[in-house]
Fold:
Amino acid sequence: MELAQVRLLVTDFAACYRFYGDVLGLKPQSGASEGPYEKFSPAVGSAGIALQDRAMMAEVLDEVGDAAAGHRSLVVLRVDALDAYCAEITLRGATVLHGPAPLTDRMRVAHLKDPEGNLVELQEWLLLRG
Structure:
């Protein structure tokens, strides 16, 4: 078994497309900025984040048509220089809600939300100390 992607169901596809592509700097697979589907990948690694129009998925599963309530997902991205990356994405329109701050002695994090309210955690892994 292989994890192919994490897919977020969104209602404002264009806003989320701009957030993951233009703000966070992930690479879109096809350039389908109006949807109904797009996969984004970081410069390294094989994991991906995909967006899918919620109304399209509701055609398959009726229950998905209901508006999402509360935090239903947390997208985690690892970055090498957390402070610099947060400064960069803030200039591109992101609002950092928390951090950068230590989470453990081995990790620093920052948190923000995408236009749909999905939580995004940015992680900077620190060298083991000891």
Strands lie at 6-10, 27-28, 37-41, 49-53, 74-78, 96-104, 107-113, 119-125. The chain is about 20% helix and 35% strand. Residues 13-23 form the longest helix (11 residues).
